Amino acid sequence: MRAHHFSKFDPNENNKSTFEKLLDIFMQLLTYTSGDVREGLSWLTELDKEYELTNSEYGIGDFIEDLVSKGYIDENRQKGEIKITPKTEQGIRKRSLEEIFGKLKKSKQGNHNTFKPGNGDEINPETRPFQFGDTLEQIDFTESIRNAQINHGVESFIMREDDLEIRETDFKTQTSTVLMIDISHSMILYGEDRITPAKKVAMALSELITTKYPKDTIDIVVFGNDAWTVEIKDLPYLQVGPYHTNTVAGLELAMDILRRRKNPNKQIFMITDGKPTCLKVGKRYYKNSFGVDRRILNRCMNLAAQCKKLKIPITTFMIASDPYLQKFVTEFTETNNGKAFFASLDKLGAFIFKDFESGKRKTVY
């Protein structure tokens, strides 16, 4: 009996040129190579050898020429440099958003909806009976007329207060978000690449906020032995270093940024794969990679408590499943009254996007 394999039909796939198909792959490779064009093209050439991505009429050489002519890469022959352009940086962010948000729409994983009704700017599919104080604009006349016909018949039209249906709306809050990304050495240990999914999420979330929620703010903080901010445009180049995990430095910087933000709603998202192992005391680093160090842990807990007082919830996304880390994360989360997710790498984007979107809505009294 002959077997048949059916794949999902993509109506746009056949309409793509060879250049566009190669560009999709190249953009993905650039995320893995931290923006290294030469390495990305080298990987693409190897993939072409194995999977025959090109044909006799269009080869990798043609693709490189098109990348230059279309403004995706900038080649300086005198210095021997080749780098991606701002157009490519934005393209990588857009593709990350499409990849993660596309999975999000199809998946129920990480669904933490806490939507509540109120006077807002986005229509909710739910309706409810009219209550004193509701405005004329909130009345769903289609449902109300339908109720009147059912309750009183269609021969003589009568509409009473009991027939009125109200269409709820949700209020979108303005939010200042700091996304903390662990770039300690453990993010690439044991043969598992954890930094690339973290970068993709950061790029996708940045693109979502800057395009869909322009009144919001997002700041990216990376932390290793120390903590510092990176620009959105620099995210594709982000790399792991030979660092320990100074979670305290990351939290202190995030809090300092949020203190200067004027939005009433503030939050911290922290992506990490391990326990805090480093603390800066004066000019020296206090380090302990063996177990959870109480001195470091206490500083983390103090900051979690301070954030709670400032009404800054911290949502921790732990992308490692070590049992002994769960106790630390649980204690940290309880101190802040925040949230924690033990997310697998392939579900990280869905978890963060679901949580971010649910936090965009609140009840207005």
Characterization of this structure:
With 365 residues, this protein is of the alpha/beta class. The protein folds into three domains: 18-84; 122-170, no CATH class; 173-362, 3-Layer(aba) Sandwich (Rossmann fold). The protein is 40% helix and 19% strand. The protein contains ten helices and 13 strands. It has a six-stranded mixed beta sheet, with helices on both faces. The protein has a three-stranded antiparallel beta sheet with strand order 3-4-13. The chain has a two-stranded antiparallel ribbon with strand order 1-2. Helix 9 (323-336) links the parallel strand 11 and strand 12 (339-342). Helix 6 packs parallel to helix 10. The chain is flat. The protein starts with 17 loop residues before the first helix and ends with a strand.
